[in-house]
Description:
By secondary structure, the protein is α/β, with parallel strands linked by helices. The protein has 12 helices and 12 strands. It folds into 2 domains: about 1-190, inorganic pyrophosphatase (n-terminal core); about 195-310, Diaminopimelate Epimerase, Chain A, domain 1, CATH 3.10.310.30.
Amino acid sequence: MTLDNILEEIKKANSIVIVTHESPDGDAIGSSLAMELALRSIGKKSDIIIPEYPRIFNFLPNAKNVKDKSDLKKYDLAISLDCTDLRRINGKEYFEEAKRTIVIDHHGTNSMYGDINFVNPVAPACCEILVGMFTYFNIDINQEIGTCILTGIITDTGGFKYQSVTAETFEFTAELLRKGVNVSEIYQTALETRTMANFQLLKKTLNRMEILENGKVTFTYITNQDETEVNAEPGDHEGLVEIGRDIEGVEISILLRQKDNEDKYKVSMRSKNYVNVSDLCYIFGGGGHPKAAGCLVQGTVEQIKEKLLREIRKVL
């Protein structure tokens, strides 16, 4: 019934905008591009607004159609993809001003902020939700749409290694392979390629990394100055938080990334086995997945570290 309502809103709308969360990852990018291509295939034009588009995803079909902003202030319909709440949307003014809004997501912490919400927390990626949705809408998942969708699935599952992966995930992937989607290219470009700026930031985070709580927690950070020094572009910080988690004995990895305001840091957390970092980030107004989550915290690096460790000690 929800899918029928979504299709009805799409058909009625003369102007559609697609938005996603700040600091977009492969799933946010892939689902946004796939949605635009799918809408185009049924005769609907839409704008994709992604102000911080990571250059590593320039290889994707339709990347050239992404916009930093739009001249149109009010859309008939706004579709938010892979975003837990209104605060995290980059370009939320378009969502807020739209006549009708749709939220499509796979995070269990989603606040259901749309007029219509289609949230499946069991799905390992928002892109996997789109497979079922497009099939229900009788939209052909061609090679272009499939490439965008598989990029989201591969990146959000860490290359199919997380526990969220299901038999359906591999069934979808097999079908996309049959459509001509190049899995090897997606894997190598999205997961195994580092920009020079990302490599330079990696060195800085490793040099600052602390191993805390009897080897169960790693903590590191990057500043605005760091990103300026290495000429970082959007997305060049991706993958840095995973490094600490991969150390033997570590359960939680923490990365702080300074925002424009000197006293605000984006906190990224990853866990390995038993800690639900989404619950930890929820305490600070954030959220995400049980093993990958984030939040925005005010304070100095040391102050934020102590705030986080105070809560982490309760669950270790």
